[in-house]
Write a structure and sequence with these properties.
single chain; about 160 residues; alpha/beta; 2 domains; 6-stranded parallel β-sheet; 7 helices; about 35% helix; about 20% strand
Amino acid sequence: MTLEEILGEIARLDCELVEITGGEPLLQREVPVLASRLADLGHTVLIETGGHRDISQLDPRVIRVMDLKCPDSGEASRNLWTNLNHLRPQDEVKFVLASRGDYEWAREVIGEHDLENRVRVLISTAHGLIEPQDVVAWMLEDGLRVRFQLQLHKYIWDPIERRR
């Protein structure tokens, strides 16, 4: 779709909130332009990024939802740590945990970068790899001021069915 076609479809849907996600949206060079155009039209715009692409180029009106990849993902070495310098209070940092080790790592990163006082922090579990109730218990035990979330799409749609 062209930029104009996307804008037309969003206008047709008459939605106030637009979240740009799926794969890594910042790999598409037109995404920052699309986000700015949507903000110009009065939309609340969120971009959900994997955290390994520079977010400083984004329009300040755009809410950044940035992953920090945990060690068990095999992607932690790709985290672009300078992105933390470009986060604002309305932005979010998300950790998806696969183990207790990932939780300990996330807790250290949250403390080291004072994320609880700078942005919204989200902690989620990798579906089927770690029990949500265990993570919530650890969060409560440690007094983390973060939000817990589930990957709802994994509960709404069977993960095996989605691959077909």
